Amino acid sequence: MNQTRFQQIARRFSELKLLVIGDLILDEFIWGKVRRISPEAPVPVVEVNRETYYPGGAANVARNLREFADQIHLMGLIGCGPHAARLKGLLETDRIRLDCLLSDPNYTTIVKTRIIAHHQQMVRVDRETKRGLTPAQVQEALQRLDTLIDGIDGIIIEDYGKGLLTQELVDAVIARARAAGKIVTVDPNPCNDFVWNDVSTIKPNRSEAFATAGKLYSEPVDPPTRDAALLEVGETLMNRWATESLLVTLGEQGIMLFHRDNPPFHIPTQAREVFDVSGAGDTVIALFTLSLCAGATAAEAAEIANCASGIVVGKLGTATVSYEELLACFKADA
């Protein structure tokens, strides 16, 4: 893809309206330096010099979309404590629309804390209690979706395996979206063996794809188009799921797109240097879906998503990508 074609696709980004549904997480980063080992135990002592916070999980998908589109809606569950207030404040600052956000005083907002020293993540601390929506909350969520569905272009279902999504909710969302003619993409979690029927694209990473297909994981083969195990997994999942395409992220090998009636399409990574893979998958599903909604083919959308992923892994923290950075990924017209 050259710059002209990318610009043709990206020209529609700002006018698109998307809904992200999934587990909401507050990402906390504690930054510092290590100068000594603790006398209490053989562990490094981190001298903290700053703390930063970002929307994580499905909220990070919405944040990636918000870099390009003005109307991004988010559906998920948060609590009512200080972590919930901080996450909600971050989302409001990013001007993400919270008309589908559900709040429950009995729910504990999920927090992932990463401690980083000298540009290296040393430890991650998770605070979470897995819990789904109550029957009343499911009905409320679907009622809010019904008021929104006609005005949006697509839906991303982001499953971080924290309990929000159930088969009942997934089925109801997909049925409403497809009845309204909307694009639906899914970032699945192998912990949930959901039946994904009638969606546009499903995006697992390599290990998730093997786990979901029930195949023993095998090490990558280069090039991926000759990776027999990966090709078998792709075929298995395409047959299991009623999906138009399957997008498998391969880390340093890039992305493999499986599409019905077409041979697998491999796109090598464009990452020059990897500092942090936090949220890279969120960037992929966000830019892939946005591009599909803008009229790109699945292959074109995969190229754009692959470029975006290569950019964010070169940044520390839960990062996003800009239009200018994406434009620079594509070759100027000959």
Order of neighbouring strands in the sheet with most strands? 5-4-1-8-9-10-11-12-13
N/C terminus separation: 11 Å
The CATH topology is given as UDP-N-acetylmuramoyl-L-alanine:D-glutamate ligase
- Report the uncertain regions: none
**Radius of gyration (Å):** 20 Å
Give a description of the structure.
With 334 residues, this protein is α/β, with parallel strands linked by helices. It has one domain (3-20, 57-107, 129-329): Ribokinase (UDP-N-acetylmuramoyl-L-alanine:D-glutamate ligase), CATH 3.40.1190.20. Helices cover 34% and strands 30% of the residues. It has ten helices and 13 strands. It has helices at 3-10, 58-66, 82-93, 135-148, 167-179, 206-213, 228-240, 280-293, 298-312, 323-329, and strands at residues 17-22, 24-37, 44-57, 71-78, 97-103, 110-117, 120-127, 154-158, 183-187, 197-202, 242-249, 255-259, 262-267. The strands form two sheets. Strands 5-4-1-8-9-10-11-12-13 form a nine-stranded mixed beta sheet, with helices on both faces. A four-stranded mixed beta sheet has the order 3-2-6-7. Strand 8, helix 5 (167-179) and strand 9 form a beta-alpha-beta unit. Helix 1 packs antiparallel against helix 10, helix 2 crosses helix 8 (280-293) and helix 6 (206-213) crosses helix 7 (228-240). The longest helix has 15 residues, at 298-312. It is globular and about 60 Å long. The N and C termini lie close together (11 Å). The mean pLDDT is 93.
